[in-house]
C-alpha cells in the first residue's frame, strides 16, 4: 500500500499542475490529499468528461492535468478522450479506479465495467498500467507514463485497484458562493449573424487574448475570418469549450475568451457551476445563441426555454450581460474584459451560416501546439511558466 502523499509527490515530480475529477471511494485518499496540497490546484468537476476537457485546457495553458475518476466515469470520458485529446494530441494523466475488478466482489452496477476497463482503454488507444502498491515502484511506473506522454502526445492511465492507497484525512473548506450582476442590454433589435458577431468580438479583443471556440460552424467561421495562433478550435467534444477555457485560464494571466453556442452549452450545462466556482477575472464566456443546431440542418435547440444569463448568475459568474444588438455586445465585451470575472456575455444571433464555408486547413495537433506556445510566451518574447517538460510533443 502506498501513501497519498507519495502518489501526489510522484504527480508533482512528473509535471502535474492540476487535479480534477469526480470522487470514488477508492480515490478518497488521493482526493483528500489533492484538496490540501499546495503544489497542485484541485478542481471538483461536475462530470468526468468535463474533467477531461479541463485537463486538456491545463496542458494548452502550459501545465499538465490529472483526471481522477471511478472507472464507471470512463463512459462519460469517451467523447472528449477520443474526439478532443486524441486528435489534438493532448497529453493528460488519468487515475481510474477498478471497481468490479474480476475476482473481487463489488456492487452489480460495476460488474460489466470492471470486466471491460482495460479493454475499453485499449479501444480508445490510451496506454495504461496498474498503479503499483509498492512505494519503491512508483518512480519507475511514472517514468514509463511520462515517456508515453512525450512519445505519443496522448493520455496515459493508471488503473487503481481497491486498497492501493492508504487512508488520508480530509481537510476541506466550503467554497463561498459568489454573487453576480446581471445587465439586460436594451432595446431589442434585429439579431446579427454569427459571422458579424465574431467579427465584432475580434475587433474588441486585445492581442494578448487567447480564444477557445466551440465545435461546428463557430470554429469554421472564426477560422475563415482570421486564423490566428491564439485561436483553439474544438473539432469535437461538443459542449467542452467552457471546460477547456477554464483549464487554460487557470494557468495564465492572459484574457481567455470562450466562444460557445447555445446547443453546445446545453450539452454540458453543469459546467457553469464549475466555472462559477473556480473561474477567475481573466475568463470571459461568450454564448452566441441562435436557437438552432446550424451544423446539422438547423434543428431547434432548447435555448428558447432557458435563461443562460440567470443560470450562470445562479452558478457564481460575477458579470452577466444579455445582448441583442452588436452595439451592446461591444460594450459588454469591454466590461467583461475589465473584470471582475468570470463573466458571461450572451448575444442573440440569427440562424444560418455562409454558404461554401470551408474547414480549417491546420490539423488539430498543430492548432493545439501553436496555441500552447502563444499562451506560454510573454508579450516580450520570454517564456512564462517554468515547466516545459511536456510542451514538445510532436
UniProtKB/TrEMBL annotation:
EC number, as in UniProt: 4.1.1.82
Keywords from the named record: Decarboxylase, Lyase, Thiamine pyrophosphate
Listed GO MF terms: magnesium ion binding; phosphonopyruvate decarboxylase activity; thiamine pyrophosphate binding
Transferase listed as a keyword: no
Family matches, as Pfam families: TPP_enzyme_C, TPP_enzyme_N
Domain Thiamine pyrophosphate enzyme TPP-binding: start-end pairs: 221-345
Main EC class the enzyme belongs to: lyase
Residue span(s) of domain Thiamine pyrophosphate enzyme N-terminal TPP-binding: 5-111
GO BP of this protein: organic phosphonate biosynthetic process
Keyword Lyase: yes
Gene3D superfamilies linked: 3.40.50.970
UniProt superkingdom: Bacteria
NCBIfam families reported for this sequence: Ppyr-DeCO2ase
Protein name: Phosphonopyruvate decarboxylase
Amino acid at each position: 500500500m502506498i501513501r497519498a502523499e507519495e502518489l501526489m509527490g510522484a504527480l508533482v515530480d512528473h509535471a502535474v499542475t492540476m487535479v480534477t475529477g469526480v470522487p470514488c471511494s477508492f480515490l478518497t485518499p488521493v482526493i483528500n490529499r489533492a484538496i490540501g496540497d499546495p503544489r497542485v490546484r484541485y478542481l471538483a468537476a461536475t462530470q468526468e468528461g468535463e474533467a477531461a476537457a479541463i485537463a486538456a485546457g491545463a496542458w494548452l495553458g502550459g501545465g499538465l492535468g490529472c483526471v481522477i475518476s471511478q472507472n464507471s466515469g470512463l463512459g462519460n470520458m469517451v467523447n472528449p478522450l477520443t474526439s478532443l485529446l486524441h486528435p489534438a494530441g493532448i497529453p493528460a494523466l488519468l487515475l481510474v479506479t477498478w471497481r468490479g475488478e474480476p475476482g473481487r466482489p463489488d456492487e452489480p452496477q460495476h460488474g460489466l465495467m470492471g470486466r471491460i476497463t482495460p479493454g475499453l482503454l485499449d479501444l480508445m488507444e490510451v496506454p495504461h498500467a496498474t498503479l503499483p502498491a509498492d512505494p519503491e515502484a512508483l518512480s519507475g511506473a511514472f517514468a514509463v507514463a511520462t515517456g508515453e506522454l512525450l512519445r505519443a502526445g496522448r493520455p496515459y492511465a493508471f488503473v487503481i485497484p481497491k486498497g492501493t492507497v492508504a487512508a488520508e484525512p480530509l481537510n476541506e473548506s466550503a467554497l463561498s458562493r459568489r454573487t453576480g450582476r446581471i445587465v439586460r442590454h436594451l432595446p431589442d433589435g434585429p439579431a446579427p449573424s454569427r459571422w458579424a458577431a465574431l467579427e465584432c468580438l475580434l475587433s474588441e479583443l486585445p492581442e494578448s487574448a487567447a480564444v477557445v471556440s466551440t465545435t461546428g460552424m463557430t470554429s469554421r467561421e472564426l477560422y475563415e475570418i482570421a486564423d490566428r495562433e491564439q485561436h483553439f478550435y474544438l473539432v469535437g467534444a461538443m459542449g467542452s469549450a467552457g471546460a477547456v477555457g477554464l483549464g487554460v485560464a487557470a494557468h495564465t494571466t492572459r484574457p481567455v475568451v470562450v466562444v460557445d453556442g447555445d446547443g453546445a452549452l446545453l450539452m454540458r450545462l453543469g459546467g457553469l457551476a464549475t466555472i462559477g466556482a473556480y473561474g477567475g477575472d481573466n475568463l470571459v464566456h461568450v454564448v452566441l445563441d441562435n436557437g438552432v443546431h446550424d451544423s446539422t440542418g438547423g434543428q431547434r435547440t432548447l435555448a428558447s426555454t432557458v435563461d443562460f444569463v440567470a443560470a450562470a448568475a445562479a452558478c457564481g459568474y460575477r458579470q452577466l450581460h444579455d445582448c441583442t444588438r452588436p452595439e451592446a455586445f461591444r460594450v459588454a465585451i469591454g466590461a467583461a474584459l475589465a473584470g471582475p470575472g468570470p463573466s458571461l456575455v450572451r448575444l442573440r444571433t440569427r440562424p444560418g451560416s455562409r454558404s461554401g464555408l470551408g474547414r480549417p486547413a491546420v490539423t488539430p495537433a498543430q492548432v493545439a501546439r501553436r496555441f500552447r506556445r502563444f499562451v506560454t510566451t510573454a508579450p516580450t518574447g520570454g517564456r512564462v511558466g517554468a515547466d516545459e517538460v511536456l510542451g514538445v510533443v510532436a
